[in-house]
Amino acid sequence: MEAIRSLQEQAKECEEWCSRQEPKAYLPSARKGLRVLPAHHGELATPLAGCELRTDGGVFMEKPLGVVIGSLMIVAALMCWAAIVVVLYPGLSWTGAPSVFSVLFSVPIFLLVAYLPARVIFLEHQVVFADDFLVVRLRSFGRTEKECRLATGEAVVVGMAFRDQFYSVEGATRYYPLLSVVVSSAGQEVAFGEKLPLEQRVRLAVLIDHYYNGSELYVIGPDNSRVR
Are residues 44 and 113 in the same domain? Predict the structure, then answer.
């Protein structure tokens, strides 16, 4: 009997295949997507950076690369701030305190430039489980930016499929399809997680399916404790 491949391996292969095809060729298969199976639940036993598992769900954050890139962007924003101060300084000499006023006038510009990279660092997906509903929140700076809520019936189907989300490579002239986590129940569905890297999306899908369709399994938390 052929062993079932890991969901991450299948999802990666699916996205790579879709990126080489025209939309009319990949859309039928990509919209159908991949189903999370009980055999995939064993993947939860392996710790994954950026995942904080809780008894009622979990928190999924950007992988460390996202933090590095966000930090570099903030450094670039600081350099832009310094350049703006230098440019404003000569024109504010009439105030008698050009250094002070050039810094004050440039602060709003710096905050606008620095907001996006700072948001990348603090962006997280929060998942909350309950017997009759599932809640997924996109949060940044402790504030909920988006919330998906799905009433769950007796049957809950979890998978990864294309739901009109794309990513682009810098310098590329086309967009590539991205698989979202898709949860459906009682004729309704929600799709989310496209801002997370692939390994995080896969772990999120498996965690949700395990809660609603799996048997008891203990996974290893970030502090080496057992989380149900």
Answer: no
**127 close to 144: Cβ distance less than 8 angstroms:** no
Question: Do 19 and 51 sit in the same domain of this protein?
Answer: yes
Does residue 2 lie in a domain region?
A: no
| Residues 163 and 214 reside in one and the same domain | yes
Considering the domain boundaries, does residue 1 fall inside one?
no
Same domain as 167, residue 111: no
Q: Do 12 and 87 fall into the same domain?
A: no
Question: 86 lies in a domain?
Answer: yes
Whether the model clears a pTM of 0.85, i.e. scores above it, the answer is no
pLDDT digits (tens, 9 = 90+) for 112-153: 766 666 666 677 788 888 778 888 888 877 778 788 889 888
Phi, psi of 130 (to 5 degrees): -150, 160
The bridge status of strand 226-227 relative to strand 219-220 is antiparallel
In SS3 terms, the chain reads as CCCCCCHHHHHHHHHHHHHCCCHHHHHHHHHHCEECCHHHHHHHHCCCCCEEEECCEEEEECCHHHHHHHHHHHHHHHHHHHHHHHHHHHHCHHHCCHHHHHHHHHHHHHHHHHHHHHHHHHCEEEEEECCCEEEEEEEECCEEEEEEEEECCCCCEEEEEEEEEEECCCCCCCCEEEEEEEEEECCEEEEECCCCCHHHHHHHHHHHHHHHHCCCCCEECCCCCEEC
